[in-house]
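Shipment paperwork, digital attachment
Item: protein structure file
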Amino acid sequence: MKDLTYSISPEVFAAFPEYRRGFVVARGVRNGDSPPGLVGLLREEEARAREGLQMETLTAEPHLASWREAFRRLGYKPGDYRPSVEALLRRVLRGQELPVINALVDIGNVVSLRHRLPVGGHAIDVLTQDIALRPATGAEEFIPFGSDAPEHPLPGEFIFAEGNTVLTRRWIWRQARHTLTLPETTAIEFNIDALLPAGAADLETAAKDAMDLIVRFCGGRTRFEIFNRGNPRISFGGEP
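Attachment content:
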């Protein structure tokens, strides 16, 4: 893969100066069905969430409360557009077991539950253009998983995009069909998001957890960096 650029626009940091995004890259991975050890970790994190959290007070949990407030500031009603980590925890607290999808997807869910941070995985072996977290113009196209009907983000909406193809709408809300992590995926990047102060201490630990789990269950080579206001652009491609 040629070198590509990943950037976070100044508008994002202007609105949320203390925002951090962990960027975990893995190449040469062997994805596929999750082995019993990984499924066991997923079930352990589900059980730990049920022991430590209650549905009635979930929105007051500091990690989730910070994201709900950020969504309100951006005009995204958090009851209609739940931050991904909240949606994940709500499923678990309703007593549902998360579906076992494939090793890389399940690793992302383990890390998200363990650290209560949004985690989004994107196959990067399908990318041909630079990627960015930025405000939308409204002309971009989003095709959600399970649908062929294109949508368009609202102008100003925070999107994660490859050119004009939207990979995630509303910052950390919903991922597109493009860059889905599939059994044949050999290169992936995980976005791990934190809003200070609640998520600050967990971000680097979560990134290291993700790398350890990837190597343990999928092999490959990993690296990570952290986006912040002083480090808004990263080049990636080739070897990690």
